[in-house]
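Quick illustration for those who missed Monday's session on complexes.
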Amino acid sequence: MPPSPDWTRRHILSLADFTPAEYNTILQTAVSFREVLSRRTKKVPALQGKVVANLFFESSTRTRSSFELAAKRLSADSLNFAPGTSSLTKGETILDTAKTYLAMGTDLMVIRHRDAGVPTAIAQEMERLGTQVGVLNAGDGQHEHPSQALLDLFTMCCCLDADEPRLEQLQGKKIAIIGDILHSRVARSNLWSLTASGAEVHLAAPPTLLPAYFAEMIAAATDLPRSITLHWDLEPALEQADFVMTLRLQKERMTQHLLPSLREYHQQFGITRDRLRLCQPSVRLLHPGPVNRGVEISSDLMDDPVLSLVSQQVTSGVAIRMALLYLMASGQD
Ligand code: NCD
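Prediction with N-carbamoyl-L-aspartate bound:
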């Protein structure tokens, strides 16, 4: 496989230090793979002979299946790991599990874990052992979920120019992210990519789910001008928005009672058809899934074929993940 001259990263663990050029390389590569996925034979030999291990230590429907399909469409041999029936239940450590997959000749590891930092720890171990294995973070605790933010970026940019999606198209666009930002790795990764594009990012949630340090965290990354505004009311975030991304209430990550009730949350922060009238007439809705219908978004909006990009996000996910696996593998040979 020819190395990609624009790609030098072995691992994809966080989007914090991604450059505009890297985002655009990913978007362009995903366009090529989207074309492959539209063919009758939806497969290319790009990763033939490579082994991709999907090590999902936490539940997942779309991310896991999407990576599995992406690896298969690239003709890689993919291994799927199920923690409940693995040697983890016999006390094996996560690093020893990773080393077992390394010993089988794994080239790329896609890792999801409920604790922040696990993919980074595995990547460091792979480096220490002198291997070329690439590690991709498929969601770690409340930290990051880079491939989700990249597929969100691809979906939004394709909405503006389907043939040539580019990061710069989001410049000056108003993007509202609504919901459980505190517990969301999706929001954290999206903050890096969307602010890097020059979009105006508006976050809205009840104060218990939107800590003020979010703005400081992004402002501290001074290499790019980043625009981020926090709201503890929904309406100002929605006014004239071009895109609205709503997030699931992550009940499994809540350790305290942070909300009076789901009904009250829906009344104050739920996205409804009525509230969307505050946005641009061309507004589009995103949600990473899984969805609590009737809580963060009304059920009819979720299924609206024009307003909702939720299915496009899932479809985009396969092309983006093919692009990521391809780019990571291109540096290995
Ligand atoms: C997200 C996740 O797992 O972080 N889902 C996803 O990967 N599509 C968001 C969530 O769980 O709410």
